[in-house]
Structure formats: structure tokens, C-alpha cells
Amino acid sequence: MAAFTPLKFSLIFVLLVIASNAFSIKEASIDDLQLAFKQNKLTSRKLVKFYIKEVDRLNPVLKGVIEVNPDALLQAKQADYERRIKAPGSSVGLHGIPILLKDLIATKDKMNNTAGSFALLGSVVPRDAGVVMKLRKAGAIIFGKASMTEWAAFRSLTLPHGFSPRGGQGKARSL
Fold first, then answer.
1. 136-154: pLDDT as tens digits
2. Residues 13-22 pLDDT 10s
3. CA atoms within 13 Å, Cβ hemisphere of 102
4. Residue 174 lies in a domain
5. Structural domain for 84, as ranges
6. Beta strands 65-68 and 141-146: pairing type?
7. How far apart are CA 91 and CA 111, in angstroms?
8. 140, 101 in Cβ contact below 8 A?
């Protein structure tokens, strides 16, 4: 068996450090994503496409997303453009980061605002909710609407948690 020399040990240590610094979208924090944007390792468009694929892959089982914003890729393209031209605030905070909202939070866009119910399908709100205005101002991409218990369980004491007519019965994912 070959002995570990200081040189071999140093090489292994360097390889481990390099491997630990590898970028992983699945494990990335907002700060990690912003750094990846800044280093041109990632774009908002690639990030949104990744999340769309994850929703397509996991949502048939988990039923956690009621709908994806049809304009999410367009918003991502705009965020990437702003970063390229170095618009103020385009490399910090939530700029270019996809955000999923509960279906109870009003958005004045192409998405529905239904609180999980078919009764409100197609309804139009007069404006974005205050939190949505703040998210958009911060440059966040409104990615879609998350499922929720219909009417936030307001209408029934016996409705199963995580059930909505629009989303079906949501399931917790075991880790």
C-alpha cells in the first residue's frame, strides 16, 4: 500500500476544496445564486428553466404548484438583460430570483388568484398585493402559485390539510 506523502495529501485536500466549491442549484441560497449570476455561472433564465423542469418532474406526485407564471421566462430574460447592462440593484437581493407565492396572494398578471378554489378561476384582481409590489420592486421573478388548502381552510373544519380542488391533495416529500 502506497504511503500518503505530504504532496499527495495536499493534492487530495485541494481537490476536496475545489469539489466543495462546485455550484449546485439545488443547494444554493439566494446569496449563492447572486454570486453565480455575478460570475456568469448562471442566468435567471437558466434558473427558471431548471425550476420549471423540477415542477414538471415532481408536481404530478407532490401537487405543490397550482400554476407556473407564463411570463416567468420573460421576466428572467429581463433580469438577465438588466444584469448585463448593470442596472442599479441588478446584482443584489432578490433581483432575478424566482419566487413562488401561495395562491391566496393577488397578482395582477396572467395567473389566476383563486385561494385554491374553482369558484374564483378567471377572476381579475385590481392590483398586485402589497407584498407582490415589494417583490417586483426588488426584482424578484414571480414564478408561480403554490397550492394551498382551499380558502385557507376558512370554510371547513374537516377539510384535509393541503387539499384544494385546483391543486388536488398535496403531499409532503420525505427527505
1. 999 999 999 988 776 565 6
2. 444 444 445 6
3. 12
4. no
5. 29-169
6. antiparallel
7. 27
8. no
